[in-house]
Structures are given as C-alpha cells and as structure tokens.
Design goal:
The chain is an alpha+beta fold and 205 residues long. The chain has two domains: 9-117, Trna Endonuclease, Chain: A, domain 1 (3-Layer(aba) Sandwich), CATH 3.40.1350; 137-199, Arc Repressor Mutant, subunit A (Orthogonal Bundle), CATH 1.10.10. The protein has seven helices and eleven strands. Strands 3-6-7-8 form a four-stranded mixed sheet, with helices on one face. A three-stranded antiparallel sheet has the order 9-11-10. The N and C termini lie far apart (38 Å). This is TnsA endonuclease N-terminal domain-containing protein.
Length: 205
C-alpha cells in the first residue's frame, strides 16, 4: 500500500490535534516522520500555492504536499514523490525555479521527500511514536524519564521497562520520550523491546 498513489486517509497530529490529509502512501509516511520528529512543532498539508516562471518564461503554480514549523523557528516545505516519478515529473527543475526565484518566502528550506528518504522501518517507527504520543500517560513518562536520567550508554527497552513501567505501558512511555527527543534510538530497524535507546546528546558539529 505504501506505493499506492491512490491511497487516501487522515492522520491526527497528536501535538496539535489537527487533521492532516494524505493522498498517497508516501505522503502518509512523510507526514508521520515529521510528526514524530522532536524538531517539528506543527505540520500542515498543502499550504497555499506559490508561483514560479519556467525556463520558457511561462508562469506556473506549485502546491507543496506538506509544510512544517520547526522548534528553531524555521519553516520547511516538503514536496513528496515516489522515486520512480521524480525524473518524469520534472519536480527537481520545478523546485530549482522556486528556490532561485524566492517564490516561497515563508519556507527556509525546501526538501524533496521520496522513498529513498523514508525507509519502511523509519516510517513504521514514526507511526508508533505518533500513536504513543496521542495516548500519552504523563505519570508513566515521568517515571521512565527519572530512571533514564541515570543511564550511561545505551540500554535495551525491555530492561528499561522492567525497571520502571512493565510491558506495553512502559513501551508507550519510552516512545513518548523518543518523541520528545529525550531519548534516542540506538541503531536502525523496527522499534522492539530488544531495541536499544540512550539519552539524547547534542551533536558535536
């Protein structure tokens, strides 16, 4: 279903309770990845169209699939395409015109998202994190947070939940801390009880 361009649905952003409509599996995945990022404050679909002039001097309008406001105050525009459609759609040239002409002054960054930027595991993890945040139990989160403050290095999620809030409720709390950016996932792959997490550390560069 991920590559089905006719896949339609609605996501409720747990951070804002705002609905986000999607019209393809790729748009859905991109929306979940933005929602689950601790660097993102808000996400909307299809912001107002922006104009640009092509290489023949003809004016066109482009509507980005998604837009996001970041914790830094920056705003991002995110066109979404299946990898197989990038070349034939001419989206790269279109975005270059928009950047060069400053047609989207509200966007500090314009980032094309394709299947190459959204692995299946990353998208599924983002959905888990978004769903956990929607049903957040603040008391459970604080119990896990206090224990996690003492961590040195990484720890298996099962070990963390066994020491704090067992089973599914503990996993949900861990996912909420991943959503906050308080914890980082160590390694790649689907989030499972055997996955390792660690305290978030600020990048050195």
């Amino acid at each position: 279903m991920r590559n089905d361009r006719n896949l339609r649905g609605i996501i409720v952003n747990p951070k804002t309770r705002r609905e986000i409509k999607f019209e393809s599996g790729h748009e859905r995945d991109a929306a979940y990845l933005l929602i689950a990022s601790p660097d993102v404050v808000d996400v909307i679909e299809q912001p107002p169209a922006v104009p640009y002039v092509d290489s023949q001097g003809k004016q066109h309008w482009h509507t980005f699939d998604l837009a996001a406001r970041l914790t830094s105050g920056e705003r991002g525009a995110y066109p979404v395409k299946a990898t197989s459609m990038v070349e034939r759609s001419g989206i790269a040239e279109e975005l270059n015109h928009i950047r060069d002409q400053g047609s989207a002054p509200w966007a500090d960054r314009i980032c094309l998202r394709t299947g190459e930027h959204m692995s299946r595991d990353a998208a599924d993890n983002a959905r888990l994190i978004a769903d956990a945040t929607r049903w957040k139990n603040a008391a459970d989160v604080e119990v896990v947070r206090e224990f996690a403050r003492t961590l040195v290095g990484s720890i298996a999620i099962r070990t963390l939940t066994d020491a704090t809030i067992p089973a599914a409720a503990g996993m949900q709390a861990v996912l909420c801390l991943l959503a906050e950016g308080f914890l980082n996932l160590s390694g790649t792959g689907l989030i499972e009880y055997s996955s390792h997490v660690q305290l978030w550390t600020k990048p050195t560069n």
